[in-house]
Write a structure and sequence with these properties.
2 copies of one chain form a homodimer. Chain A has 9 helices and 10 strands. The relative contact order of chain A is 0.15. The radius of gyration of chain A is 17 Å and the shape is globular. In chain A, helix 4 packs antiparallel against helix 9, helix 5 crosses helix 8 and helix 6 packs across helix 7. In chain A, a hairpin with a 2-residue loop joins strand 9 and strand 10. In chain A, the strands form 3 sheets. Chain A has a 4-stranded antiparallel β-sheet. Helix content of chain A is 43%, strand content 23%. By secondary structure, chain A is an alpha+beta fold. At the A-B interface, strand 4, strand 5, helix 4 and helix 9 of A face strand 4, strand 5, helix 4 and helix 9 of B. The structure holds a DNA duplex.
Chain lengths: 230, 230
DNA sequence: CTGCCACCGTACGTTTCCGTACTGAGAAAA
DNA sequence: TTTTCTCAGTACGGAAACGTACGGTGGCAG
């Protein structure tokens, strides 16, 4: 019985850990790898340890926008839990690192045996749905700087150091805005001392200030997580 | 055994219908009634027949925006299914009419007895999450006219006639934009013959044209519904 | 060490939508 | 009828973000 870096795995009862662990494979996931493609069967469900994955919805052909972020607090492939093996969204690796994975079929088998595991994962499903809803809120009502602040905070929550390895270009795709807008906003953040920006990397310097800027656009799903999973 | 107007109830097996029906109460719901308040316990779960309910996320104090729409195709209170009795969102009646409701606790008891019912509701949960994700997409990338078209189509799907009883003011709150912007956009729709607008009422006149305008911002959750529930 | 390429900084005219506010019109109440 | 209230139409200046584009820079590959 090992102490898991993934917070869902760490929250499991010993019995559930015994059910899951024989099936978990450690994997290294490189940047930009797609772990779920739109409308394709989900083969594996991933429990991130140090990776951060983006759940991305398509709009039209090559037009994408992020709807959610999953790191060490969660799990990918929730659709498996909801009784289906595919979803219209895609999921891919935003920040590389390690994860544990399990075959989707194996997980479904285990879910039939353990109510407590299913309930834990459903509670995370609720948290994640809340996150998506708050993304809708932020996209509809927040200014770019607030959305950017929200993203940085969510990424920061899911990293060990204060560093997030990401380019402006990628961030722009995630937020559905111009690359140049991201550059300008990050510059302003840096001048205010919120972050230190280096090529392909953002270091959080003043988290409190970023939280203040994000205001109520950050924190709702995080509070739900704390309440329901701990 | 009656033929239900709610599509989820209509899709139930006879056994599940027998479990549920004794607990279902018909209710009339008036406009603007709140059936779920943020962070309050959900008392009843509603299966709309002719009502349309909005799921609304808060941003700050009195700043709201719609993240999803539930009508005769669905059910409110999905959070009950996810193992919790409250959620940060609120749900209220957008278009008045009839619904069937069941006490949340009674539903939870029944869910323990019927896997098939739980699976059906979870599949709807997946569809609804998809709808929220597409709301995030639309809020992030679509122009106001496209978002408005999307809303009209979704409301139209959930009404019997071609009429939707809604004011510009309400629509503006739902979409998180100015009331005046809605007026201007609806005017343009009317001049193009897409709709007929009367005081507090929109009548769909040329659905195809509205679909064309909404483009890929409409249809993703609807396709999931068809695929998973039918 | 040099060339290349991904990444970042900046600029400018344009579009979309906002904030605010005033006016008129339909419906319901007095 | 007259009043009152909600709802809809219109206007104007301004902010935010867009599309596009060009030049600079850090860092890796040859």
């Amino acid at each position: 019985m090992k102490k898991h870096r993934n917070r869902l795995l760490a929250a499991l009862s010993p019995a559930d850990q015994n059910l899951l662990e024989p099936q978990l494979q450690p994997v290294q996931l490189e940047k930009r790898r797609t772990i779920e493609a739109p409308n394709k069967t989900v083969d594996y469900v991933y429990f991130p340890e140090t990776v951060i994955a983006s759940v991305v919805a398509l709009c039209g052909r090559e037009d994408r926008i992020e709807v959610g972020l999953i790191g060490c607090e969660g799990v990918s492939g929730l659709t498996v839990l909801m009784g289906d093996l595919r979803s219209p969204n895609s999921t891919y690796i935003q920040v590389e690192g390690e994860a544990l994975r399990i075959e989707a079929d194996a997980l479904r088998t285990i879910l039939l045996k353990s109510n407590s595991l299913r309930e834990l994962l459903l509670r995370f499903g609720h948290v994640f749905t809340t996150q998506i809803a708050q993304t809708a809120v932020a996209n509809g009502r927040a200014k770019l700087e607030q959305r950017l602040a929200r993203w940085i905070l969510m990424a920061h929550d899911r990293t060990v150091a204060d560093d997030v390895a990401i380019t402006h270009e990628f961030l722009a795709v995630m937020l559905g805005v111009r690359r140049a807008s991201v550059t300008v906003a990050l510059d302003r953040f840096e001048k205010k001392g919120f972050i230190i920006a280096r090529r392909g990397r953002i270091t959080v310097a003043d988290r409190k200030a970023i939280e203040k800027l994000a205001g109520h656009f950050y924190g709702v799903p995080e509070a739900e997580f704390k309440r329901l999973i701990g």
